[in-house]
Specification:
Structural class: alpha+beta
Number of helices: 2
Keywords: Hydrolase
GO molecular function, one term: fatty acyl-CoA hydrolase activity
Protein name: Thioesterase
Pfam families: 4HBT_2
Strand content: 35-45%
CATH architecture: Roll
Strand order of the largest sheet: 1-3-4-5-2
CATH superfamily: Hotdog Thioesterase
Largest sheet: 5 strands, antiparallel
Radius of gyration: 15 Å
Oligomer: single chain
InterPro entries: 4-hydroxybenzoyl-CoA_TE, HotDog_dom_sf
CATH topology: Thiol Ester Dehydrase, Chain A
Order of helices and strands: EHEEEEH
Number of strands: 5
């Protein structure tokens, strides 16, 4: 699998569960953080922008375990890009590998900050998504 963006994800001591592998919730945290950092760096203004992105659904499929102190990466690409929503496709990876330990999917719907009604993806973000994250 190829991802247009890969971000480092260093594991932490408290990421392990009682079975000695990374807790399921940590995978979601890593994916959510990667998406939001990418959006912020691409110009989404969380403080003063007229649109925000809210998560409408998410899922994760686990294929292989990871644990602290293993360094990981999160791969990000855009699947479906609609008028008001983006389906993000993610992979939790070992550095240098294209085979994910886990794959995830988040659907973000862009909404008007005040009304919380769906609103078009901001043009500058659409350009960045299509340029950097689509195959």
């Amino acid at each position: 699998m190829t991802y247009g963006h890969r971000a480092p994800f260093p594991t932490r001591w408290n990421d392990n569960d009682m079975y000695g592998h990374m807790n399921n919730a940590v995978y979601y945290e890593a994916m959510d953080t990667t998406i939001n950092v990418w959006l912020l760096r691409s110009g989404l203004d969380l403080v003063e922008g007229d649109r925000i992105a809210v998560c409408a659904s998410s899922s994760c499929e686990f294929r292989e375990s990871a644990s602290f102190p293993e360094p990981l990466e999160v791969g990000l690409r855009a699947g479906r890009v609609g008028t008001t929503s983006v389906t993000w496709e993610l992979g939790i990876l070992r550095p240098g590998s294209d085979e994910p330990l886990a794959t995830g999917r988040f659907v973000h719907v862009f909404v008007d900050r005040d009304t919380r009604r769906p609103a078009p993806i901001p043009d500058h973000l659409r350009v960045a998504i299509e340029r950097d994250l689509t195959a």
